[in-house]
Amino acid sequence: MGNLILSWLLFGSCLSTLSYVGITLTLSGMFLYHNCKFMTSWAVRQGFSRRDHPGKGL
Predict the structure, then answer these.
(1) Is residue 55 part of a domain?
(2) What is residue 39's predicted lDDT score, i.e. its pLDDT?
(3) Are 49 and 43 in contact (CB under 8 A)?
(4) How many domains does one find in the chain?
(5) How confident is the model at residue 44, as a pLDDT?
(6) What angle do helix axes 17-34 and 2-11 make, rounded to 10 degrees?
(7) How many CA atoms lie within 13 A of 14 on its CB side?
(8) Would you call 48 helix, strand, or coil by DSSP?
């Protein structure tokens, strides 16, 4: 994200829609990576956990 903003400041080009989508996906991925315990507890509270189905031993 910093590279895109720096490029915009230095060269004056507009960021495309694809650039904004990339920024959003990158920040979303970072949030999920750093808050995996929070996301897991949220998923369990919402009922996404299926313990009654046989699977991978979880």
Answers:
(1) no
(2) 82
(3) yes
(4) 1
(5) 84
(6) 150
(7) 2
(8) coil
Q: How far apart are CA 29 and CA 24, in angstroms?
A: 9
Q: Please report whether residue 23 resides in a domain.
A: yes
Q: Which pLDDT belongs to residue 57? A: 54
| Owner of token pair 């920024």 | 23
- Model confidence over 2-51: pLDDT tens digits? 766 777 777 776 767 887 788 888 888 898 888 888 888 888 888 876 66
Q: Is residue 26 part of a domain?
A: yes
Specify whether the CB–CB gap between 4 and 19 falls below 8 A: yes
In a domain, 35, yes or no: yes
Domain enclosing residue 36, as ranges: 16-47
At residue 1, the pLDDT reads 60
The per-residue pLDDT for 58 is 53
- Which whole-number Å values give the CA distances from 28 to 9, 18, 25, 47, 51, in the listed order? 24, 15, 5, 22, 27
